[in-house]
Amino acid sequence: MNKLYPDAAAALDGLLHDGMLICAGGFGLCGIPERLIDAVQASGVKDLTVASNNAGIDGEGLGKLLRTRQIKKMISSYVGENKEFERQYLSGELEVEFCPQGTLAERCRAGGAGIPGFYTKTGVGTLVAEGKEVKVFDGEEYILERGIRADLSIIKGWKADESGNLIFRKTARNFNQPMATAGRICVAEVEEIVPVGSLDPDAIHLPGIYVNRLVVGAPYDKKIEFRMTRPRPTGTAA
């Protein structure tokens, strides 16, 4: 099975439709599938539900899809750096399902492992627990969280071989791994694709069985969410 595609648009061809659920990897602007997000935007698909740790920032990452009103609902744990997200949510244009960060990761991992739901103490006694089943284990209350099974996963990796075995680089591993397994179809963009057998089997983070399509997204511009600088000191030392 050939998993290699010439560009992001080709890799998503035939997979997108209105109203679908997409799991998107990344944390802030770290490890986000930039080329695939651009291709989703260019396709014009709408009424999307997107499960992602956050929605990027204004005009970057998933923020691009918010700006074009293609996202109907976000399932997220953090949204504090996106003014457009805030505006759409407060005006009632965007539905938001807030989910604790660890719970979100586990919901995606569970979905990928075929686990329809699990109980957790996180959120007990808060708004997170409203409308959810509560069960007592050893005298403690736990709430039922549903696993997430998406129509499509879009993720970003560092290096992959031609069969889809994939390595993430450092912090960019973040949500990409559980998001990848949660999708019925997973499309990965990577910085480099190497021949089968080139990767150390012990170094592979995501087995190729989870990856359906691959595209090289490089080169990338390194985007920084917060650039903290201070004026260069003036004068010379005595």
From TrEMBL:
One Pfam family here: CoA_trans
Domain of life: Bacteria
Keyword presence, Iron: no
InterPro entries from the UniProt entry: 3-oxoacid_CoA-transf_A, CoA_trans_fam_I, NagB/RpiA_transferase-like
UniProt GO MF annotations: transferase activity
Alphabetical UniProt keywords: Transferase
Transferase as UniProt keyword: yes
Protein name (record): CoA transferase subunit A
Lineage of source species: Bacteria, Pseudomonadati, Pseudomonadota, Alphaproteobacteria, Sphingomonadales
